[in-house]
Structures are given as C-alpha cells and as structure tokens.
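Hi all, a correction to my earlier message: I attached the wrong file for DUF7144 domain-containing protein. Here's the right sequence:
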Amino acid sequence: MTTADPAASAASAAPAHRTRTLWAAGASTFGATIMLVVGIFQFAEGLIAVVNGSKFFVNTPNYVFTFNATTWGWLHMIIGLSAAVAGGFIFTGNVFARSVGVALAVLSALANFLWLPYYPVWAIVIIALDVFVIWGLTTVDLGEL
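and the right structure:
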C-alpha cells in the first residue's frame, strides 16, 4: 500500500486550477470584447434606420411583425449603446455587469430576430455574435475567479 504525498497532490491540483481560471478569464474577456463589437454594430444598424430607413431597408408588407424603421432604429441605437457600455464594464470583472451583458445580448438577439426581414444578413450576423456573447459570459465559473 502506498500513501499519497499531500504536497504532491496539492502541486498537481494547482496547474489544473490555474488553467480553469485562465479559461474563465479568457471567456469573460471574449464575451466583453464581442459585446463591444455587437453594441457598435447594433448602434450602426439603428443609425442607418433613423437616417435612411425607408430607402435602405427591405419593405415587407406581409410580415407578421411590421414596424416603423425609424422607431426600430432608435430602439437598436439604445440597445447598442447599452451593450457597448455593459461590454466595457464587464472588463472590470463585475458580476452584475456580466448579468446585464447576458440580458442585453438576449434582448439584442430578440430585437434582431424581429428585424430579420428588413435586413437579413446583418441581423443574422448580430444574432450569431449575441450567441457567442452569451456563451462567453456564462461559461465563467465565478467560484474560480
């Protein structure tokens, strides 16, 4: 029978803990960075809708969710600005900022889903980035940070 050396087992557990902590910090940084990008994209989408919405976007008369492009532009600008600010605060490591970031990413994905027929490619890109933000911000094990 061999007895395990407590110092040796603690030393082998330390690199695993450090690796998980680095992955958690990397996922949080990834989520915050993508959130900043999504916020800027969302703001640009809203600005285009406010300035030139009726001429730029596709008219969809038979779509279930019909919206005024200018109204949706202001909504996208507000969501985009909020997402960019939340992305900046996520870099501080604040748990509340991470929670707000996830909520804003879900709201952004929902708004772009409803916006899908008006500007489909852009909406799909932002929805995909929102999914990455949600993944990046929720994979962090808060007990390890």
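Sorry for the mix-up. The chain has a mean pLDDT of 78.
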